UniProtKB/TrEMBL annotation:
This is Folate-binding protein YgfZ. InterPro entries: TrmE/GcvT-like, YgfZ/GCV_T_CS, YgfZ/GcvT. The keyword Transit peptide applies. Keywords: Transit peptide. The keyword Hydrolase does not apply. It comes from Lysobacter auxotrophicus. SUPFAM superfamilies: Folate-binding domain.
Amino acid sequence: MHDNPQPMADTVFALPGHRLITLEGRDAAAFAQAQFMNDVALLEPGQWQWSGWLTPKGRVIALFALLKRSDEAVWLVLPDADAAALAGALQRFVFRSKVRIQLREDVCANGRFGAPVAASGATFTGDEDAGFELDVGSIDAPRTLTLSRTTVPPDEAAAAAWHAYDLEHGLPRLPPSQVEHWTPQQLSLDRLRAFSVKKGCYPGQEIVARTHFLGQAKRGLVLLEADAALEAGQDVTAGSVAMGKLVATGFDGARHRALAVMPLERDAVVLEVNGAPVTERALRDGLAR
């Protein structure tokens, strides 16, 4: 479980930065299958998966939870990306597809540290009137994400704990400075089952598949902790040798944490960021869907 005290399990709080994009229409699921890096066709209605959108060179533009309500309704829950810009960029690829892309300002994403009422694993529950519930936790540390029209008060401490939880479990919360820099393998998104190397074409698929089948993935995510503040984009060093780069950071009031892209095979060395020591921790499991 999380090492620091958590908000009360029945406390619901707003998740800042989380936005919803909906794809609606006859070709919604087919459009998502053609554009995004995970296999939407494997999902049954009422299931969700981690997924993302890549550049043609296989770099991650955005990560999100993809909910398949039906073949004509796919929802994207984005924790960090510029949702308006992403919706506009996706719109340029609609062409003749029968799909309407909409940024839903009327739906709020809220969080709670506690087990879902009915959702479990990759199965979400609810409807648009009552709201939707997703299981975004692990067995040892349950969490619930809800999508509804209900506005709840913000809670900075709870939101920071949520962010830290994501980092601890290997879900990279990419700031704008790290967008379009990293491949899915470099972000260890296989741990979340967030991309496919077997489905048909999608932007960046050739790079992703080649890296997978030729065994060229040499770097992946490492969880680091420090007493000093950390910032995405900073180098991780061992003496004068650059070892990697911070891609996502957070602070929950007790510890500074970061996810760094570093070599998968390396010697045990003392690591520093900006001259201050950092400690490597094991990534937690439980968010794969």
